[in-house]
Specification:
By secondary structure, the protein is α/β, with parallel strands linked by helices. It is 37% helix and 11% strand. It has one domain (9-232): HUPs (Rossmann fold), CATH 3.40.50. It is globular.
Length: 234
């Protein structure tokens, strides 16, 4: 059932993973949310099916998927077949350096698309589920990056120059641990079974259980003391 109309619109980036789905669920409490996903040539393209499920279940006002083929540049294990997705990394290893699963400029590109849609919608608000605590070391998940993008956004648009909107990039999960995100999602009654978190899924979409994304998800559920339905479904 669609949620009742709200007075404010927001564009929410939605991958279909745990973080972005939680972010959408949170934004839905105050905004009419327009969910935006990306088919960028990712090896885990199955996440787009999860994004569609989540957007529908949470009552997003609209859900669009933009095609941006980042395989033309490669440089990441998520967009280049010749690069292997790291497996079995320890928490310490995941906390050191920038991994090969980093997709060059991905969040910059995604936020730019979100900015364009927000301007068309006459919206001042963009939500992104970045996290700077339990994450894989991506530079475009840091508060400093988000602040810089927000500043740029208000210089780059017609609406900003004319003073009609002042863009705010919301990052409600940025200071939460993965366990904290799991607990928040549970409080928001997010159906975890709708989500997908795996960089290198097995045939049929099953989780590999070994990549950074899978391991961070496992860590979050274990520390939160909540059973992950995706694991029990394997």
């Amino acid at each position: 059932m669609p949620s009742p109309a709200k007075s404010r619109k927001a564009v929410c980036l939605l991958s279909g993973g745990l973080d972005s789905s939680t972010c959408l669920a949170l934004a839905q409490r105050e905004f009419d949310c327009y969910a935006l996903s990306f088919d960028y040539g990712q090896r885990h393209r199955i996440e787009l099916e999860a994004a569609a499920r989540v957007a529908k279940a949470l009552g997003a006002k609209e859900h669009r998927t933009a095609k941006v083929d980042l395989r033309v540049f490669g440089g990441s294990a998520l967009t280049a077949d010749e690069l292997a997705v790291p497996k079995h990394r320890s928490a310490q290893e995941m906390g050191e350096g920038i991994p090969i699963t980093y997709v060059p400029a991905r969040n910059t590109i995604f936020l730019s698309y979100a900015l364009a849609w927000a301007e068309v919608l006459e919206s001042s608000d963009i939500f992104i589920g970045v996290n700077a605590i339990d994450y894989s070391g991506y530079p475009d998940c840091r508060p400093k990056f988000i602040s810089a993008f927000e500043h740029m956004a208000n210089l780059a648009t017609k609406a900003g120059v004319e003073g009609r909107t002042l863009i705010k990039v919301h990052t409600p999960l940025i200071e939460l641990s993965k366990a904290g995100i799991v607990k928040l999602a549970a409080d928001l009654q997010l159906d975890f079974a709708l989500t997908h978190s795996c960089y290198d899924p097995l045939p049929g979409g099953k989780l590999c259980g070994q990549c950074d994304s899978c391991l961070l998800r496992q860590k979050g559920f274990e520390e939160a003391g909540i059973l992950d339905p995706l694991v029990s479904m394997q």
